[in-house]
Here is the input.
Amino acid sequence: MFSGIVEEFAVVTAVEKEKENMHFTLECSFAGELKIDQSIAHNGVCLTVVRIDGRTYTVTAMKETLDRSNLGLLKVGDKVNVERSMLMNGRLDGHIVQGHVDQTARCTDVQDAEGSYVYTFTYEANPEMARRGYLTVDKGSVTVNGVSLTVCNPTDCSFQVCIIPYTYEHTNFHTLQPGSVVNIEFDIIGKYISRMMPGMNA
Here is the structure.
């Protein structure tokens, strides 16, 4: 489990394809603190550490993960938002994030809001999935590339988020532009409530 509070961005140093899997090696400041089998969110995707070497570590993504997320687009030099799993003895500064990406979205607009930035994202809308809680609501939570954010101006297939300068500089949001593909995870609480509603109304 994660909170959506990104620790830093890691830099991809190697990408290796093995059959349907892809191995990603990344460099970050806390690589030396990691352990094999530890879970880390990468652009919001929970992956397991399989190798550690100095300031770098390696994780593996399977086909299902690559199909559902933007990880298959990564190349050497790309910046990836990373967060270690949440400690259960502290404050939950973001919201409950599982690290199970639901789908990708595309950045369609970036506006300079005189100090902060407003990003617009669009995604493929599916009415059946929306009934099951795969949607955004105004002032609700959404995870974009692993970052816990508050939704503004949602529609059936789009939403906006406001990014403060600190988040812009310390995550890979500063690399996003119209056309960029991001990972999104809808709020798990909304999914549970949507699943329960049919039974409650029966």
